[in-house]
Every structure is written in structure tokens, then in C-alpha cells.
Amino acid sequence: MEIPSIPLGQWIEGGLDWLTTEYSGVTRGISRVTQTGIDGLNDALFWLPPWALLLIIVGLCWWVSSHRLAIGAALGMALIWNLDLWDPMIETLTLVVIATLVAVVIALPVGIAAALSERLYRTIMPVLDFMQTMPAFVYLIPAIPFFGIGSVSAIFATVIFSMPPAIRFTTLGIRQVPKDLIEAADAYGATRRQKLLKVQLPLSLPTVMAGINQTIMLALSMVVIAAMIGADGLGSEVWRAIQRLRPGDGFEAGIAVVILAMLLDRVTQSLRKGRKS
Fold it and tell me: Is pLDDT of 277 > 50?
């Protein structure tokens, strides 16, 4: 006796076909706006000479952290420039910045709402578990019918992939605020909005920043993978090296990714601490 298989794949394909047909105007509008943002940020960063942008990055690292990070940033950026990977690095940085901004704008309100509503918290946690355990490559599949091949699809897949940590950490930070401080705010007659803005969010800020840090790291890993669907940047250099069997070129691009990831990680950690280390 054979048990008929559930046509789950056919249902998913049918749902994607319906969405792309019914909401093609919306996706085209999102695609145009996103592509405009990508082109604008790329043009602004490319307009700066490499040495000028390098100095800006070094100054930022010195300001938010220490001279040691600034020296490391100078050496790392100079190596990327020397390896002739400056332009791909800029394209990767653009994708990471835009994807992170979109993910954080969506994640923070959702995380706050989940922290304040027990029903929403119980509903959203299994969804986040599903999103974080789904293989990263799967997120590339729905991006293509919605937005086609290119950087916009990479942004879409990266936002979905990198958003869960920001939601989780925002919810966790707010829910871990000591109850006696909440009771003290209630005793002084604080409204729900005042408690959120003046007590819960300020106290949970280090945890929220840790979530944003994780979102940035996941975004960087995803935009590299998204080179498979036409995203520009260091990921495309790695993908091109794999296709042409050039391990040296692939390692050079990989080292550039590591340098960029370390800089972004150290800068966001310093911002989370709120002081120079």
C-alpha cells in the first residue's frame, strides 16, 4: 500500500506564481526604488577617491573604538586596494548597508511588539525558528521570480535571512528589563509609551545592538552567497574564481570579505559598548 505524497512543492510553486502575477506592479515598484538606492550609494562611494574613503573609514574606527582598530582598518583597506578589489568591496558594502537598514527597520517594531504582547511572542518565535533553520540558498529561490536576477534579489534574500536575530535580541532585551524598574515607572504614573521610550528601550539598547551586529554579519554572508543570482561585489569575485578554477583569486576575495566583516563587527561592538575600548 503506497501513501500518496503531498504535493507541497507544487503548492509552493503555485503560490509563487500567483504572487508574482497578482503583485507584479508592487514588486516592480520595490525593485525600482531599491535599485535607485543601490545605484545612489554606489555612485556616492565611487565618487570618493579610494584614499579619501580609506581615511574616512580609519577616522571612524578611531572615533568609535581605538587607534588599534584604526591601524588595523588602514592595513586591511590598503590590502584590499592593493589586490584591486576596491570596487567589489564598495559594491558589497552597499548591499550590506541597504539590506541591514531594511532588516532593522522591519525587525525593531516587530521585536518591540513581540516583547509587549505575549500572544504575538508565542506566534512569532516558531516563525523565527523556521527562518533561521532554513538553508540560506533556499532564500534565493523566491527572490528570482519576484525581482529577477541581480542586486535587488540579493537585497530581498538578505533581508529575510538576516532579520531574525534583530527581532530576537530586541524582544529579549525588552523582556529582560528588571520588573522592579517597570513597577517604579508605574508608581510614578508613566504611560506605556513613556515606559517603552524612557525605561525599556534605553536599558535594552546593548542587547538590541548585539542583534544588529548579528544581522550585519548574516547580511554580509548572504550577499556573498547571492552572487549566484547575479549580485555584484566580492561574492561575484569568489563565484567567478570557482567557475574558472582559480583558487588564488578566490582566496584573495575571501580575505577581503574577512577584512570587511571584522571591521563591521568591531565597529558595531564599539557602538554597542558606547565608549572607546
Answer: no
